[in-house]
Amino acid sequence: MRLSRPSTPRLWTKLLALKGFAKNFSCGLLPILAMGSALLLTTSCAPAETKQMVSSGVDGEPEPKRVSEETMEAVQGSEASSDGSELDAILKKNPPTREKLDALLAIAAEQGHAANVRSLLAHGAKPDGNGDGAPLMAAATAGKTEVVDLLLEKGADPNKRTGDKPTILAELAATDQSATMARLLEAKADPNVSSHWVERRTRKLRFGNPSMTIADRYWTPLMIAASMGKSKMVETLLNHGSDKSLQSPEGTAYEIAKERGHSEAEKLLKP
User: Fold this and answer.
1) Where are the domains of the chain?
2) Bigger pLDDT: 54 vs 71
3) Which CATH number is 169-204+211-271 given?
4) Do 141 and 184 meet the contact criterion of CB atoms below 8 Å apart?
5) Kind of pairing, strands 195-203 and 29-34?
6) 213 versus 153: which is more confidently predicted?
7) Residues contacting 95, CB < 8 A, separation 6+
């Protein structure tokens, strides 16, 4: 995304600060008006690469056919039609590029608009997005089971991910979305794949404020669920073939749960 540089250096600094601040919002759509031009930052929970594609061209280059405000409202707004006809009409009138269709699919999936997901797929969006599984990741972590089922039915691969980023199962393991986890496991998602995970632990101290430690881990979904005491998720993973004997530098899932004091998960994982 490119901005035309204002003539006043101080104003330019303020605009960059605003842009950085906007990116830290977790969800929503933030319009920033700068120097008479509208800078649109899409800040949904979909991956950053997806958001950039919607607001600019591929690789950050300006795209003549930007996704219109009308399209964005039809995809993620509360006015989205229940049958997807509104979005279908807009896409026929002003068809986006394939890359933007994939990005819009991830946003619609996160919102849980199954009709809009069907419409975007019909217009050429891929179930796996740009190849990183972003639509399925967005729907699964948001707990949109209807959209998860739809994407799997259309051929989305539950094992897709980008590089060493967490798998969909790894992201879900830290939540209470056990029903969605079961759907993905039944669709042949591999529960024994390790991926990078950032563990954040808060420890209570006898004196002073609680301390937080942040550490990089390389764990399976079962280890992640065990570390957070997600006993229902642990049970779901074990029932679908997760191997509790797998080792990490911090030990097995059982040892991780025991060290962190999660007794219920510990019982389920006991060798």
Assistant:
1) 169-204+211-271
2) 71
3) 1.25.40.20
4) no
5) unpaired
6) 153
7) 123
String of b and e for 75-112 (b: at least 16 CB within 10 Å)?
bbeeebeeebebbbebbeeeebbebbbbbbbbbbbbbb
Q: Whole-structure pTM over 0.90, yes or no?
A: no
- Per-residue pLDDT of 3-61, as tens digits, reads 444 444 444 444 444 444 444 444 443 333 333 333 333 334 455 555 554 544 444 44
Model confidence over 253-268: pLDDT tens digits? 999 999 999 999 999 9
Helix, coil or strand: residue 213 = strand
Task: Mark 24-63 as b/e (b = at least 16 C-beta within 10 Å).
Answer: eeeeebeeeebeeeebbbbbbbbbeebbbbbbbbeeeeeb
Contacts of 162 (CB under 8 A, 6+ apart): 47, 132
Enter the tokens of residue 258: 């025991």
